[in-house]
Design a protein that fits this description.
seven-stranded mixed β-sheet, alpha/beta, membrane, ComA-like_MBL, Competence_DNA_uptake, MBL fold metallo-hydrolase, single chain, disordered N terminus
Length: 792
């Protein structure tokens, strides 16, 4: 029986083109990472192997040998030359010196928005875009240079976000070195709008009208589903709230918001089904599906990822149309060869690897696993619904583990729950996109029909992301990916043998009991009796002060973005916030305001006398009105008390008389509310972002600044008076700072002063969430130890 199964496998799947695909992929990837000469060497090895294969394999393997020979020749000559030309482009040399250049470029892809966290008076959001382009003429440092290479434009949203592929434009900026492993000659940092912009091709203009129509139609829905639908249909996440995007990532559903071969298989399958219902012939059906595929690619854009998705979707359609499994694997191998030769940068793209592996898993593993489940009594539909996400998870987990440094524990479950609505929401969204410009009423009906499916996906992602231990930490990089691959191979192979299945099951249970984070089985965070927690929210502030009532705490500041503070409060089990204090209105202190209300009751929002920047005050006051929550102003000397916690307002000692538009960052920082809290762990001084002048005012007024715990002002910047720190005389100093921030926080001078005072210093960029609780001889500190990554 085993021999028959292996023989069936060989008949069902033709592996002869696989060596050519692997050789072309490996040679190109090696060339991108190590140099053009490596691609030449690997290609030459492939050519030699092909010759040997042809000589000894005979006519039976002539096709496979010829394909391997062609792949080796392409990798050794044209691909290596393209890598060499990109590395030696004159713009690259100019970028090493950071010179100014004026370029005439042709836009290659639609602008990609770059989300930036809020900081100081800069509101969180999209302020710039990344645009791949190809150079036609170049002037660097006043001298014309010969270059026709690729560049990446980093440009402001204004004037650039609306450009379409195929348009030409002239721009100037500073050249910067490009990232390695790509065929990009340089990066151009642009500050001004483009000039002399040419027209876009008519089909790109038509596609832009359809995309804009979808966004307009989605405006009838609430914010979250309205932002999700364009992502599901077109891969456009520009209107998607960052919180939802983070939940999809944590729950293993982020692939749904990227255009993939799955989208195209769904649409092509719908067209083929319609053709079958009207009894159309195979040629007409294939043509109709092909036209649908091409039209969708134009609608989404000509990005390499979309072209890749088109090819992978075409493979799925080919297998679907022919009804033969054996046709898919050779088509996949051929597609890999063609795509890597057409655009060598795909060889090093994680998305490309995920697409290829996922398609291979669906071709090789999913049908066999589904058949196995059916033989064991599982209904066919459920069997396929389980086999497809499981196969996709198994083959892509090593890449995701190496790329993200995590392994999702809920990915299979969330994908199974999401699977039933993915096809309907995709088809409804595409129909709304096509119909909307000509028949808005019908478009709105279709959007409302897609609304429940979008809400379901958001619900699945939200609960998946909130599941304890939703993702396991895993070594990142190549070694992490290889370790994950080796583990999966052992599990899958061992599961085929009855005697080993029990051992595999026992081993998995042992791993779950020993490796799964303590938050899943025996929660170790938060520590019992915590009095204060400095949340790791990146480059910003968020402090939680416990009361004597479980689940009830005062929150001071909310960080730059919604997700981190929400995660921190959820870990702490806080569901009631009697007072939410915003020390001042800079973006890195108010950016997470909305998420504090999520699943929690908030008694009031408290602010100081500052009303700048104006956009921030409008945002805070508007949110208070929308939530029906009182907005109160704290004043010097005011005392607030709860069981187990009391607050006294120490500052600011003055209110600026300048209009908000005239206040600079220093003035806004110095208007921070300064609080002294009495907690079971000792006295806490919360200083916001007060700088030298405000600190001097507090000293001059003779305020009692002594405290056991100090929240260091302004993320540990150099604007801290040694006399101020000495007046506090803290035992413990907490610094809230983002990993890899570009502001130089915390300052070495501030750290040195605290060090000479013998203060225990903690940093959220190193320690993650940091809790303070009562100790035997003073406050004790417990670190969660999972710092947030660099700001985006």
């Amino acid at each position: 029986m085993k021999l028959e199964t292996e023989e069936e496998t060989r008949r069902d799947h033709d592996f002869r083109l696989v060596p050519a695909a692997v050789a072309g992929w490996v040679a190109t990837l090696a060339g991108l990472q190590l140099g053009w000469w490596v691609a030449t060497a690997v290609g030459a090895v492939a050519v030699i192997g092909a010759v040997v294969f042809l000589v000894r394999g005979g006519a039976r393997y002539a096709g496979a040998g010829g394909a391997l020979l062609l792949a080796g020749l392409i990798a050794a000559v044209p691909t290596a030359l393209r890598i060499h030309d990109a590395a030696s482009d004159p713009l690259g040399a100019a970028a090493e010196h950071g010179v100014t250049a004026t370029l005439r470029v042709e836009i290659s892809e639609r602008p990609r928005p770059i989300h930036q966290a809020g900081y100081a008076d800069q509101q969180a959001g999209t302020r710039s875009v990344a645009i791949p382009a190809r150079v036609s003429t170049a002037i660097a440092d006043g001298q014309p240079i010969e270059s026709t290479g690729r560049v990446l434009l980093l440009a402001p949203v204004a004037g650039w976000s609306g450009l379409l592929p195929g348009q030409e434009a002239t721009t100037s900026g500073r050249l910067l070195p490009a990232r390695g492993g790509e065929l990009t000659a340089a990066v151009l940092s642009v500050r001004a709008a483009p000039i002399d912009v040419g027209p876009a091709p008519w089909w790109q203009q038509a596609a832009a009208v359809l995309r804009n129509s979808l966004h307009s139609l989605c405006s009838v829905l609430p914010e979250e589903p309205a932002g999700l639908l364009p992502g599901l249909v077109l891969g456009d996440t520009s209107a998607l709230p960052q919180r939802v995007e983070g939940e999809f990532k944590a729950s293993g559903l982020t692939h749904l918001m990227a255009v993939s071969g799955g989208n195209l298989v769904i649409l092509g399958g719908a067209v083929l089904l319609l053709c079958r219902l009207v009894r159309a012939g195979p040629r007409f059906s294939a043509t109709a599906a092909g036209v649908c595929l091409v039209g969708f690619l134009v609608l989404v854009g000509p990005e390499p990822s979309v072209v890749r998705a088109g090819v992978m979707g075409g493979i799925g359609l080919l297998a679907l149309a022919l009804g033969r499994r054996g046709s898919a694997l050779p088509a996949l191998a051929f597609a890999v060869c063609v795509l890597v030769a057409w655009d060598p940068t795909m060889a090093g793209n994680f998305g490309f690897a995920l697409s290829v592996l996922a398609t291979a898993g669906l071709v090789l593993l999913a049908p066999r696993w589904a058949d196995s489940l059916v033989r064991r009594g599982v209904p066919a539909g459920y069997a396929e619904g389980l086999a497809v996400p499981l196969a996709a998870f198994v083959v892509t987990a090593p890449v995701i583990a190496g790329m993200a440094g995590t392994v999702s524990l809920v990915s299979v479950v969330t994908n199974v729950l999401a699977a039933p609505v993915v096809a309907p929401v995709t088809v409804l969204g595409v129909l709304a996109t096509v119909v909307g410009p000509w028949w808005p009423g019908a478009g709105r009906v279709l959007i409302h029909a897609a609304d429940p499916e979008a809400r379901w996906l958001i619900t699945v992602a939200r609960h998946g992301a909130r599941a304890p231990g939703a993702a396991l930490s895993w070594p990142g990089g190549w070694w992490g990916g290889l370790c994950a691959a080796a583990l999966l191979v052992v599990v899958v192979v061992a599961a085929r043998f009855r005697r080993l299945r029990l051992l595999v099951a026992i081993g998995l249970v042992v791993v779950l009991l020993t490796v799964v984070p303590a938050t899943v089985l025996a929660p170790g965070w938060p520590p019992g009796g915590w009095a204060m927690v400095e949340c790791d929210v990146g480059q910003g502030d968020a402090v939680v002060l416990a009361t004597a009532e479980p689940g009830r705490a005062v929150v001071v500041d909310t960080g730059p973005e919604p997700e981190p503070v929400d995660e921190c409060l959820r870990r702490l089990g806080v569901d009631r916030v009697p007072l939410l204090v915003l020390s001042h209105l800079h973006a890195d202190h108010i950016g997470g305001l909305v998420s504090v209300f999520d699943g929690r009751t908030v008694g009031a929002i408290a602010v100081g006398p500052g009303r700048a920047p104006a956009w921030a005050w409008q945002s805070v006051s508007g949110e208070a009105r929308r939530r029906g929550v009182p907005l109160v102003q704290l004043s010097d000397g005011q005392r607030l008390e709860w069981p187990g916690l009391s607050l006294e307002v120490l500052g600011p000692r003055y209110a600026t008389t300048r209009a908000p538009a005239l206040q600079d960052g220093t003035m806004i920082n110095n208007s921070s509310v300064v609080l002294r809290a009495e907690t079971p762990a000792g006295r806490v001084l919360l200083t916001g972002d007060v700088e030298l002048a405000a600190q001097a005012d507090l000293l001059a007024e003779g305020a009692d600044l002594r405290a056991d715990i100090l929240k260091v002002p302004h993320h540990g910047s150099r604007y801290s008076l040694p006399q101020f720190l000495a007046a506090v005389r803290p035992r413990t100093a907490l610094i809230s700072v983002g990993a890899g921030n570009g502001y130089g926080h915390p300052s070495k001078s501030t750290m040195d002063v605290l060090g000479t005072m013998g203060v225990l210093v903690t940093r959220t960029d190193v320690d993650g969430d940091t809790a303070v609780l009562p100790g035997g001889s003073g406050p004790a500190v417990v670190r969660r130890g999972e710092p947030r990554g660099p700001p985006r």
